[in-house]
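#help-structures
NK: newbie question, is this the right format to request a structure? protein is Peptide methionine sulfoxide reductase MsrA
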Amino acid sequence: MFGRKTTMVDPARALPGRETPIEPPFGHTVLGTALTPPYPDGSEIADLGMGCFWGAERVFWRLGAEKGVITTAVGYAGGFTPNPTYEEVCSGLTGHTEVVRVVFDPELISYAEILKIFWEGHDPTQGMRQGNDVGSQYRSAIYYHSEAQRETAEATRDAFQPVLTRSGYGEITTEIAPLRDFYFAEDYHQQYLSDAKNPNGYCGIGGTGASCPIGVASTGDE
């Protein structure tokens, strides 16, 4: 039943997509900041797949500017189809996963601290699913923007694995890869769980209860 959706599509068989990108709204429903570049000088970007991107985005926007989060948005990454739609991504025929983009001020919050929230906020051992959400679009993923981000991603993963093992979990399946493309999701997905859009909305993002020891992950972010 889930065979096609839990197997990465061959690039040659991926849907063709389109040339025209989806245009997200300009302003963040909660933070009031711009969703699209250019972002403020000195800011950094984290692109993370944690399962359903509605709940993942809410986890990060709730940190707010005082904790260093400038803006958040949801989109699609890690696949082959240009400018995919949500329905296409859900078909399993684009290769993308649902991603939250976090634009942050590294003077206030480090990439390692962002990843601590990432690791603790979902179960990174489930392969092509997250809880009851099944499919390649729900896989755990970190798409890095620099070698420093790659090193931090791998160091935090390696630090977290023994903690998960002691807690009875399996091997981490998180994809760690350079970002090729990020495609913004449709307007209605942006800040979907905000009070302005869906005050009673639900998305079952949940962690393992294990704490990621980020202290080992000093990799040049400073």
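mod (FA): yep, format's fine, and the tokens are attached above. The beta strands are 44-50, 69-77, 97-104, 129-130, 133-134, 140-144, 175-178, 182-184.
NK: thank you!
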